[in-house]
Design goal:
single chain; mainly alpha; 2 domains
């Protein structure tokens, strides 16, 4: 409920700002492609409902340090998905960067030795 209320309030606030700036008058449904609508639907379902709900749940069951690692892992996953699904170029520099990021996340999440 907490996550849903935050998303609803954010949506209402952004909608009001949009109306205040006159954006609805410049929007035409016919100019939006089916791919754009499907992409928006994907972002709503997976990027907001599922991902944010999982994030809030993780905050309850794990430590903040572990949960915060999502900010480092998400860009790596996005680059890999872009490469695998869309054929985007994946250079040596990006692979090294991903390896360094993932190594840092692994080091952060390892249990402490005492």
């Amino acid at each position: 409920m907490n996550a849903a209320l935050q998303m609803l309030c954010g949506g209402v606030a952004l909608s009001l700002l949009s109306v205040a700036h006159g954006e609805p008058a410049r929007f035409h449904f016919a100019q939006v492609s089916m791919q754009s609508w499907l992409s928006l639907l994907y972002l709503i379902v997976f990027g907001s409902w599922i991902a944010f709900s999982a994030y809030v749940w993780l905050l309850k069951v794990s430590t903040p340090a572990r949960v915060a690692t999502y900010a480092y892992v998400n860009p790596v996953i996005a680059v890999l998905l872009g490469h695998l699904l869309l054929g985007e170029a994946l250079g040596v520099r990006a692979v090294w960067a991903a390896a360094i990021i993932l190594a840092g996340v692994i080091i952060t999440t390892l249990p402490k030795r005492e």
